Structures are given as structure tokens and as C-alpha cells.
Amino acid sequence: MTTVIEARNLFKAYGAKRALDSVSFTIEAGRIVGIIGPNGAGKTTALKGILGLAPFEGDLTVLGRNPRTERDRLMQDVCFIADVAVLPKWMRVRNALDYVEGVHPRFNRERAEDFLRRTDIRMGSRVRELSKGMVTQLHLALVLAIDARLLVLDEPTLGLDLLYRRQFYDTLLNDYFDKERTILLTTHQVEEVEHLLTDVIFLAHGHIVLSSTVDAISDRYLQLTVGPDGLSRARELHPFYEREVFGRTALLYEGRTARELESLGEVRTPSIADLFVAKMQAPDAARAPGASQ
Amino acid sequence: MNESAEVREAAAASQPATRADATRPMLTLLKREVWEHPALWIAPLVVTVALLIGAIFGRAYSPRTMPISIGNVSEHLQSARTVATTMLVLIYGGLQYFVMSCVLWFYATACLYNERRDRSILFWKSMPVSDAKTVLSKFLIAFAAVPLYVYVVTLLSTLVAAGIFAIRGFSGSVPLDLWDAAAWVRAQGFALELLVFAALWYAPLVAYLLLVSAWARRNVQLWALSPFVPIIVERIAFGTHYLSTWLVYRLLPGWQSQWEQWFERLFTGPFYNSSGGSSISRGQIFAGMEPLRGFENIDLWIGLAVAAALLFAAVRVRRYRDDT
Fold first, then answer.
1. pLDDT per residue over B46-92, tens digit each?
2. Residue B25: its chain A contacts at CB < 8 A?
3. B19–chain A Cβ distance below 8 A for any pair
4. ipTM score for this prediction
């Protein structure tokens, strides 16, 4: 398996605020990795480092290159969609295709045009005349037509309605993703991407709270739901998070087996969204400076 | 055999393709600038249309407004043609280059600033284009591409205007045929010399505006004009004007006195002297106007070195500035 991103001790501060504090992670090829965290957790800062858009301290290698000094070369193999509407407003759709065709050696214009034909986007329209959803479609059309190895998405569906959001991720999975490609995305809408991720990195206050494959999560974490009568026994097994739902309590455990818990109530693998919420409120996330409980 | 032929064919096919691949991104970057800033190509055309409307309806060439008598003109006919043709080229050029300077000022201050303000820099930077290439493309637009384009537009527009004057002369509303082809060629050559010199002389100004454009977080126009602040401070605090003298020299490179002499020759020369006098020759018109002598000025070359340094700084700022 080839390593796509190797990050060691990334550090970045904006004034006194530490956006990234000794963050290390490795991303292998063929994975779909979600960096998940609340607003201001350092997600975008991490992505900017990976894309060579902002300086930082630490060691970072992306596809064998140093993004700080080799952004232009790196971008032949990396595509990037920042949250919606970074396509220049004055640009015509036709010009956008002309431009990418002119500067990108791996752009396949026919592919982009094919994709656009399936939308309501016209070649002569300016980006400012398109709806938010259509701008995203256009950007996606450009990106899907580039034969890249790493796709970076920063809140790509922010502000889109459900229809476009669903379409966006479906297209990504069906038309783009394969075993050679890697997708790295940030979002705070966990539910929406949970089914497509292979790996998650939870980020809070510039720290990694959890970095795991989705498969490993089911081995490591369990959610137990008990009624009021079983609660005290369930608490004896040291859950790291609990939440009351309709008179019953959901408790999250790390490192317990299903057999230990089964007798107490209903056991299942927690959803990434549940795990995220739990981890964000658990003590190891809260110990970071600035965290409030 | 067959295989080697194929290889040769492939090599032959790839050779020109590689060369095209090398220049294509830069050409695309230049085109992209024109897409975003249509004023770059529209403004010279608007000026041209205005000038040609003036040529069709204007009374500048009618005998009643000309401060000369017909007899005088015929006496110095060649001189009149030379002066009229030269003035046509230089007045058209002067207006075009004045408008161009304004357009380029706003272009240079906006081009690296707007992309950060509307966050489209995140799109541009997602493409395999280096910051150096991006900044260079914007510099080339202001330094070479637009000036050359305006030169060609001006050149063609003087020919059209000459045609209009010829038709008006023929139909009687203009006294004479005032066309002097040799003077036109000489004046165009002069304009080109001037253009090349001016492009090089103003290169540091363009580079400075690009740097401000890449650097300013807001109020880019105010920052661009900020060098005037120390000038005012110098005036008030010390009562001296070294800075303003220097700035005037940088902005109007010693042309003032040359221009004054030159206009004096044109407007108060023998052509306008109702009492007659000697004719003015083509050579006399341009005597003392030698823009190419500016290349002997060491300040021109120092300015180019400064321009290179400022462009380098603009590239660094664009690479590291992170305010999206």
C-alpha cells in the first residue's frame, strides 16, 4: 500500500490560538478519509497545509512531495474543492473548461462536457448566474475530468440542498473513486458522509482526538442502550460517554467486548456521528485549551 | 521496421506537441486575464471609436478653425502635411496611452487583490500553476501585451482617420489633403521607440502595484498611493521636496522639457506663422526627441532590477499570504 500523505507534528498558530498542535497522521492510497471536527477545530488549516496553501511547522509529505515548495507540481496529482463558490464569478463555463484544459496536463475536456450535458448548466453562462448547487456541479465536472490521485474536499456541500448533496457524493463514489485514488474530506455534517468513509480523523482544538479506520471502530467501540434499572450496572463498566434518549440511556464504551455488555441491554456499533459527539465531549477532547463544558 | 517507423512518427508528433505544451499554460494565463478584465481590450476600442467619430464630424481640420490662410498653407504645403500627419499619430497615441495607463493602473492593483477577496484564489491555486507563473502572466499583460495591442490599434486607427480626412478633403469640407506617408512612418517609429522605453521605464511601477495588490488586505488603491504620504510628511516636516522630485522623475522621466520644446516647435513653428517663414522638415520635428537615448540612463536599468525584486516579493507574498 502506498502512502499518500505523511504528516508529522504539524503545528500552526494564529496569534495565541493553536489551530494545529503536534498533529500526526498517515493516509494510505485507496482510502476515503474524513477529517471531522467542530468549527475552528483546525480542519481547514490542516487541509491548507496539505495543499501548500498556507505555511506551518512540521514535516509533511504529500505524494512524495513537499507541498510548501512544490504546490504547482503537486497539483497535477491533487484536486481540490474548497467549500462552494470559489469558482470566479466572472468566468463563463466555457472559459472554465478552456482554462483547465490550458493549464492542466491531465484534464479530459470531453469527460467534463459529458458530465455538464447531464446538468442544466450552459456553456455560455457565467458562474455568477448559476445557483450554488450548479456551481458545485461545475466544479465537480472539472475535477472528475482530471486524472488525479488525491482529491481534497473542504466542506464541499456546505449550503447545498439535500438533493445536490446526495447527488454530489453519489457522483463521487460512482464516477470517481477507485482503489488507486484517495479522497480526503472535511465536514461537520457527519451523518452525510458516514456511509462512504473508510477512515476517520476527529479533530478538536488542533488535536487529533481519534484516528481510526471505520472497521476498527466497530472492534473498539460499542454502544449500549439500557433502561433505568440497568444503568448503575452499566456505569460500573466505565463508559466514557452517556446520553439519555426517551427515558433510556445510551452509553459508549471503549475496549469492551459485546459479550460483557450483552446481558445489560441492547448492544451495537455506535454511529460515527454518535462517536464524534461522545469524543468531542469526553475528557480527552475537553483537556485541550479553550474547550468549554 | 514497421515499429521503428511508428516510433519515429510518434517522436515527430510529440516534438511540436512538447513545444506547444510549454507555451500553452502561459498563453492560457494571459487569456484568462483578458476574460476577467475585458476593459483591457475594450477601452482602446472605445477611445478609437470616439476619435474616429471626431474625425468624421470634428471641425478641427476645417479652414475656418485653422489659424492659417489657404495661401500660407500652399506656400508650406509639405510642412503642413508633415505637421498634420505627425500630430494625428501623436494625439491619437497620446489619448490612447493615457487611457491605457489608467486601465492598467486599476488592472495591476486589482489582479492579485480580487482573487483573494472573492476567494477564487483557492480555485487558481488548485491548478498546477506556480505563483511565479501567475504573477509573471499579470506582469506581462501590463508590461507588454496591452501596450503592444494599444500600439497596433492606434496605428490602424490613424490610417482609418487619414482615410476619413482624405474623403472629407475630397468632398470639400477640409481644405487639403494633409497626408504625409513618410511622416506617418517616422511618427509610428517614434511612437514605438517611446513605447518600448516607457514599458521598461515603468516596469518597476507595474511590479510595485502587483506587490501591493498581492499584499493589501483591504483598500488596495489607498495602499498603492501610500508613497505620497512620506512626500507630504517631508514637505510639512522638513520643507524639502527631494522625494517628490524623485517621484516626478520616476513618473515623468525627464520628458517634460522635451515635450515642451516639441509642442512649441509644432504649434508656434513656421506653419502657424501667418507672416510666412521657413518650412519645417520631418527631421526637425523629431530633433531632440530621442527616446532611445534613455537606454543610456543607468536609472532605467536600476529600475528593471528593482522591478525584478518587487516581482519576486509579489510571488513570495502570493505564496504565503493566507487570508481566505
1. 999 999 998 888 765 544 444 444 445 555 666 777 778 888 888 89
2. 102-103
3. no
4. 0.87
Q: Does residue A281 fall inside a structural domain? A: yes
Residue B36 contacts A, CB cutoff 8 Å? yes
CA B49, CA B100: separation in Å to the nearest integer? 15
The answer to whether B17 contacts chain A (CB < 8 Å) is: no
Q: Which of B116, B126, B129, B131 should we substitute to test contact with A (largest number of A Cβ atoms within 10 Å)?
A: B126
pTM: 0.85
Q: Do B322 and A87 touch (CB under 8 A)?
A: no
**Of A169, A204, A239, at which residue does a domain stop?**
A204
Give B159→chain A minimum CA distance, Å.
34
Strands (E), chain A: 3-14, 17-28, 32-36, 57-62, 78-81, 150-154, 182-187, 199-204, 207-213, 221-226, 241-245, 248-254, 266-268
Domain ranges within chain B, ordered by starting residue: 39-320
Per-residue pLDDT tens digits of chain A, which is 293 residues long: 688 999 999 888 888 888 888 889 999 999 999 998 887 778 888 888 899 888 888 899 999 999 988 999 999 999 998 876 689 999 999 999 999 999 999 999 999 999 999 899 999 999 999 988 899 889 989 998 999 999 999 888 887 888 888 888 888 888 778 778 899 998 877 888 888 899 999 988 888 888 889 888 888 899 999 888 888 888 888 888 888 888 888 899 988 888 888 888 889 889 888 888 888 876 654 444 443 33
Residue A53 lies in a domain: yes
**Cβ atoms of residues B318 and A55 within 8 Å:** no
**B121 to chain A: which residues are within 8 Å by CB?**
86
Among A149, A183, A204, the domain boundary falls at: A204
Which of A93, A99, A143 to probe the B interface (max B CBs under 10 A)?
A99
Nearest-CB residue to B118 (from A81, A89, A102): A89
Measure the CA–CA gap between B200 and B203, rounded to whole angstroms.
Answer: 5
Contact A104 B127 (CB under 8 A): yes
Q: How far is A150 from A31, CA to CA, in rounded Å?
A: 10
In this structure, is residue A211 part of a structural domain?
A: no
Quick check: B322 contacting A, CB < 8 Å?
yes
Q: Which domain holds residue A145?
A: 3-204
What pLDDT digit, counting tens, does each position of B88-122 carry?
A: 888 899 899 999 999 999 999 999 999 999 889 99
d(CA B162, CA B177): 9
Among the listed residues B224, B216, B220, B204, the one whose alpha carbon sits nearest the alpha carbon of residue B310 = B204
Examine the domain organization and report whether A265 and A120 are in the same domain.
no
Using CA atoms, how far apart are residues A33 and A7, in angstroms rounded to an integer? 14
How many domains, chain A?
A: 2
- Chain A hits for B26, Cβ within 8 Å: none
Does A97 lie in the same domain as A49?
Answer: yes
| Contact yes or no for A102 and B320 at CB 8 A | no
In-domain check, residue A163: yes
Judge whether A271 and A243 are in contact, CB under 8 Å: no
CB contact under 8 A, A98 and B31: yes
Residues A196 and A220 in one domain: no
Domain CATH for A112 = 3.40.50.300
